[in-house]
């Protein structure tokens, strides 16, 4: 996901704690588009996967769908199931093949390259701490982590992680920052290794605030399958029950990034699944899902789902990318959270439209 603007002073601290997360979401969740024209999307029906999904399920207008068909990105926020859910849905027509976008996405370090991505790297088949060599904590996080205690920490960390920063870093040493970075890299590697064996339950919990937040429960509340354009039960089960279940023909890789959303740069650990959907007459060819395993700030969990849908009537003439981003952000309820939530909804769609346009240009070689 990309970010393009700065928050206003004061938003970061309204209500304290997790409520500061909301203005980040304005930037990080990648309305009305213009343009008209005929074509296969002009008359949405139950037989038209893109049109029926956008209009009948997500509340887009027929004009929005025509805009997609003519090459304009469109996006809108949709209501979540709780106040702490943030969801944005968007679409754009891309004049290349789905396989081309998949190939570009595999090269994630190039695909996500932007001014807001401060560092990024992938893990090898056997992840090692060397895969995280480019990862460093920001000066503000280095200052914060040395003071962390359960229930009071400016980073999302478990109690064990907080104590390890205290025990394994000599904060009086000139090499303290190097030692802290080494601890962070080791923690992320251990988290990834545990996840590859134990799945969501192995991701533990964040103890930076009270009550603590269990990542597996947050992901369950996110409802991975609810906003898919068609039922994809094998994929939904894989996202929930990895690695206990397998997904035939799927391709997985893991990567980390440090992203500047406009507030505090945030370290994220991600699991990507590329799923070639078995032959479907509705044109759905691939689902690409990015599942957040860890974030140092703001998100308790997040999911990006990309669905690549060819036009069955015009094979080889492009496809529609449907993008769904879902996040859980504790702190969006109540008076202050509700106010900032409105700000999020007012800006998130524009952020996603910019991201969709960037994706379209990259996939088309522009």
Which fold name corresponds to the CATH topology of the domain at 11-132 and 231-363? Alpha-D-Glucose-1,6-Bisphosphate, Chain A, domain 4
Per the principal axes of the C-alpha atoms, what is the gross shape?
elongated
Low-pLDDT parts are 1-47
Task: Give the helix level as a range of percent.
Answer: 25-40%
Could you say what the CATH architecture of the domain at 11-132 and 231-363 is? 2-Layer Sandwich
CATH superfamily of the domain at 11-132 and 231-363: START domain
| Percentage of β-strand residues | 15-25%
Cα-atom Rg, whole angstroms? 20 Å
Give average pLDDT, whole number: 83
Number of helices: 11
What does this structure look like?
This protein has a domain of 255 residues: Alpha-D-Glucose-1,6-Bisphosphate, Chain A, domain 4 (2-Layer Sandwich), CATH 3.30.530. It is 34% helix and 21% strand. It is built from eleven helices and ten strands. Strands 1-2-10-9-8-7-6-3 form an eight-stranded antiparallel beta sheet, with helices on both faces. Helix 1 runs parallel beside helix 11 and helix 7 packs antiparallel against helix 8. The relative contact order is 0.21.
Write the layout of secondary structure elements.
Layout: H1 22-28, H2 49-57, H3 62-69, E1 74-78, E2 85-94, H4 98-106, H5 108-111, E3 117-122, H6 139-145, H7 159-168, H8 176-198, E4 205-206, E5 213-214, H9 215-222, H10 233-241, E6 251-259, E7 266-276, E8 284-295, E9 301-310, E10 319-328, H11 334-363
Helix pairs in contact: 1-11, 7-8
